Amino acid sequence: MKSALIVAGGKGLRMGTELPKQFLPVGGKPVLMRTLEAFYTYDPEMRIILVLPRSQQEYWKRLCREYRFSVCHTIADGGDTRFHSVKNGLALVEAPGLVGVHDGVRPFVSQEVISRCYALAVEKRAVIPVVDVVETVRHLEGERSTTVNRDNYKLVQTPQVFDAALLKEAYEQPYTSHFTDDASVVEALGIPVFLTAGNRENIKITTPFDLRIATALIDSCSI
Ligand SMILES: Nc1ccn([C@@H]2O[C@H](COP(=O)(O)OP(=O)(O)OP(=O)(O)O)[C@@H](O)[C@H]2O)c(=O)n1
Ligand SMILES: C[C@](O)(CO)[C@H](O)COP(=O)(O)O
After folding, report:
1. Model confidence over 204-218: pLDDT tens digits?
2. Residue numbers for the site described as Positions MEP for the nucleophilic attack (predicted)?
3. Distance between CA 143 and CA 136 in Å, rounded?
4. ipTM of the predicted structure?
5. What is the full DSSP assignment across 119-133?
6. ∠ CA 91-88-110, rounded to 5°
């Protein structure tokens, strides 16, 4: 059984819009619909679980009717942190199988990346997409700072795909603020995570600037 857990339970403070960022239209369609469609296109048979704050669920259902959005999915309640949102959604995920956790605000993940992450996870059990750092990086040490070797770093994307039983076990651990993604939760069990190439367009729409990039991406290519 393959599942996709799409998390959209955040507050979007850095975006700062009244309408939660996952509902903002990009190219005439709410971001979140584009994200769910990416997983449906990859595998129409997979189970899609969408995590949303309870207060936004009725609005989402109205949007789905308005846009005649027909991708089948189940809704789970958002939590106080991303960790807690994932944990709520995981309660609806079946094991054995594979589960990919994906940010609702990453609508530009490529079919190739989704497909490769799920395929690799069959053997590797824990797979995450990453991209190169394309700028010089400095490490801050008090008043001073030094340039570090960027080749020692990667930027992490989603979907992060796991053996479902393994991810459920990992999310039984107590929360710590170091858990910024699913890989960090699994690694805390002592399980290594396999890195594979992400796609550069797979941005996390976080700030108003990202929204402009998202619009430009829609205008400039057929993602
Ligand atoms: N309690 C939370 C926090 C985050 N997320 C989700 O995790 C993804 C990555 O988080 P980010 O984009 O940084 O979202 P926010 O936490 O909403 O942003 P901010 O920190 O600006 O408030 C998003 O799809 C977001 O909705 C979630 O499901 N539940
Ligand atoms: C999971 C994630 O998208 C990987 O880049 C990220 O860790 C979540 O975003 P946040 O901004 O740290 O909440």
Report:
1. 999 999 999 999 999
2. 150, 204
3. 19
4. 0.97
5. HHHHHHSEEEEEEE-
6. 90
- The rounded percent of the chain whose pLDDT value lies above 70 is 99
Ligand 2 site-directed mutation target among 130, 176, 181, 186, most atoms within 8 Å of CB: 181
The answer to whether the predicted template modeling score (pTM) of the entire model surpasses 0.90 is yes
Decide if 86 contacts 103 (C-beta within 8 A): no
Rounded to whole angstroms, what are the CA distances from 83 to 13, 19, 32, 175, 207?
17, 23, 19, 7, 21
- Average pLDDT across the chain, whole number: 97
Q: Is ligand 1 within 6 A of the CB of residue 13?
A: yes
How much is the pLDDT for 223? 47
Is the CB–ligand 2 distance for residue 181 below 6 Å? yes
158 lines ligand 2 (CB under 6 A): yes
